[in-house]
């Protein structure tokens, strides 16, 4: 009798799964220098950014290649090709290819980013291009 009940109990639990909480919104950006028509001028540097907006904080992972010393990492408000105002400083600068961190964010700013992420972009500033080296618009991560 027990041998017959075990397969039935196992089958009954297959559909229950694990409960999951709300997903943290995650946005990505491919970072490039777009040339003279842009505010990101480095033709050789490239990178990527991944931002997670979780309540009152932004967690970030930034990669940059051929950039040299990064003197500032910002999130700006503005559409494609628009040199918009800085919304928040992610990091005052780093040396190397990667940067991981987390910063507190105002709930009003977080709500504005969540409502329209494509109107924000990540911008890295370097010693060679202090006005902006590479940038990329936020989009949902694949």
Give an overview in words.
This protein has two helices and nine strands. Helix content is 15%, strand content 42%. The chain has a five-stranded antiparallel sheet with strand order 6-3-2-1-9, with no helix packed on it. It has a four-stranded antiparallel sheet with strand order 5-4-7-8, with no helix packed on it. It has a single domain, classed as Immunoglobulin-like (Sandwich), CATH 2.60.40. With 142 residues, it is an alpha+beta fold. The model is unreliable at 5-17 (pLDDT under 50). Strand 2 (46-54) and strand 3 (57-65) form a beta hairpin.
What keyword list fits this structure?
142 residues; alpha+beta; Immunoglobulin-like; five-stranded antiparallel beta sheet; four-stranded antiparallel beta sheet
Coarse structural class:
alpha+beta
Number of helices in the DSSP assignment: 2
By CATH, the topology is Immunoglobulin-like
CATH class: Mainly Beta
Describe the main β-sheet briefly: 5 strands, antiparallel
Strand content: 35-45%
Q: Which oligomeric state applies?
A: single chain
Parts with pLDDT < 50 across at least 5 consecutive residues: 5-17
Tell me the distance between the termini.
Answer: 49 Å
| Helix share bin | 10-25%
Question: Could you tell me the radius of gyration in angstroms?
Answer: 21 Å
Strand order of the largest sheet: 6-3-2-1-9
Average pLDDT, rounded to a whole number, is: 87
Element-level helix/strand string: HEEEEEEHEEE
Shape: globular
Number of strands: 9
């Amino acid at each position: 009798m027990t041998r017959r009940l075990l397969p039935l109990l196992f089958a009954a639990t297959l559909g229950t799964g694990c409960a999951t909480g709300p997903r943290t919104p995650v946005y990505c950006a491919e970072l490039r220098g777009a040339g003279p028509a842009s505010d990101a001028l480095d033709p050789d540097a490239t990178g990527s950014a991944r931002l997670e907006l979780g309540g009152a904080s932004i967690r970030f992972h930034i990669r940059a290649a051929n950039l040299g010393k990064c003197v500032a990492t910002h999130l700006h408000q503005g559409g494609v090709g628009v040199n918009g105002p800085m919304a928040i400083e992610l990091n005052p600068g780093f040396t190397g290819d990667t940067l991981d961190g987390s910063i507190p964010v105002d709930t009003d700013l977080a709500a504005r980013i969540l409502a329209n992420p494509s109107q924000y972009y990540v911008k890295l500033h370097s010693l060679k291009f202090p006005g902006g080296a590479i940038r990329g618009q936020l989009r949902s991560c694949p």
